[in-house]
Amino acid sequence: MSRMQRSGLLAATVAAFLGLAAEANAASIGINFSGGQTNAQNIAPLASSDLTGAVQQMNWNNAGGSGADGNGTNAQVQSPTAGVLVNSNGAATTAAISWTSTNNWAIANSVRTPADAELLNGYLDNTAATTPTSITMTGIPYARYDVYAYVGSDGNGRTGHITLGSQTFYFSTNSNNNPPSFVQATATDLASAAAATFAKFTGVTGPTFTLTNTRDSNNVGLHAIQIVDTTPVPEPAAVGLLAVGGAGLLSRRRRHS
Question: How far apart are the C-alpha atoms of 136 and 142, rounded to whole Å?
Answer without folding.
Answer: 16
